[in-house]
Request: fold
Amino acid sequence: MNDVILLKLGEVVLKGLNRRTFEDKLMSNIRRRLQHCGKFQVYSRQSTIYVEPQSDSCDMDEAYAACKQIFGIISVTRARPCEKDKDAILGCAKSYLDSQLRSAKSFKVETKRSDKKFPMNSMEISQYVGGLLHDAYPHLIVDVHNPELCVHVEVREKAAYVHGPAEPGAGGLPIGMGGKAVSLLSGGIDSPVSSFMIAKRGVQLELVHFFSPPYTSQQAKEKVIELARELTPWCGRMTLHIIPFTEIQEEIRRGCPEDHFTLIMRRFMMRLAVAVAKRTGCKALVTGECLGQVASQTMDALTVSDDACELPVLRPVIGMDKEEIVRISRRIGTFATSILPYEDCCTVFTPRHPRTHPDLEEVRQYESALDVEGLIAKALQGVERITISMEG
Ligand code: ATP
Ligand code: MG
Reply:
């Protein structure tokens, strides 16, 4: 029998969300995510999802790694099935966990039995397997409270399974459970992290990027496409909306005071993102803004940008230190790309002395010198849409 992957469901168990929807969504996300690893059967029994390869050509390592990136799963284990017989279970534990049994100092066996027809109860199975493992690996100490290695035995309907400790899964909620939002993706470190964090809460994302040729280069655009691609193992397939921003920036520079440039620019970003949200059924925006990080990220500045936006703005990294954001960025695999040195449209025409405590009425006044609606409509006509998926 081939190894299987056992997945434990996350938060739904605690929160009493609609369990059925949660499981269905999660299973379809798993099936989609494993498509390129071979043919698998995915089904659930008693809070465990079973991922069973249907042929020898399935890439189990790849599938295991993929499962660790699927939101809604709290732990991932690779397990070896065997016949439902006490000696088959023992033999399986010896062969499957041999190297771990050799290297550990202490161990215990923990059994779950959902097949109540099995002739021994959980305690008897643990004692039997534990006793004979102890004989086979005499250096091991039995430690029921804090063992270095826990040998898990699960006696289920179809088979018995043996596995070592589970690894943590990605947690969160299955993508699609939490509706849709537009995430503003720059080329920086913060916005890929904020996208990841909101996706983790079960939200399907549409990505928006503003680019300003010729001030920003083709490489800067490629960099953002690459970041979006690096997010897909977590966030699933997404559409990246690339919005031309040059004319808006030039108009602001021409018509508004320099110290208000960034503030007004951000109001345009919000409006354009809202327009994309309306077209795509999204109910919120997501940004990588962090309090106090730059001039445009004071509370007064946030008030100014929120004023131009009729949807809630989710800012998951608002209270995080840079190091914390960087740590997540490294873990999810976007850091190396984020630090490539290409300019972003925000660095074009940056004011020398940006206003950090703007007055909303004053900002509105300056902005009224511009043809806001005309500029928005024109930018929206130039949107380029790219589908970003695991398949490339
Ligand atoms: P990041 O590291 O995400 O670039 P930052 O600290 O550099 O953030 P800003 O450049 O002020 O901060 O941008 C704040 C947020 O505005 C970004 O996190 C992102 O959500 C959005 N944003 C900025 N520039 C762009 C852009 N060119 N396209 C899309 N969104 C952008
Ligand atoms: Mg930036």
Notes: The mean pLDDT is 94. DSSP finds 15 helices and 15 strands in the chain. Residues 186, 188, 344, 346 surround magnesium ion (ligand 2) (CB under 6 Å).
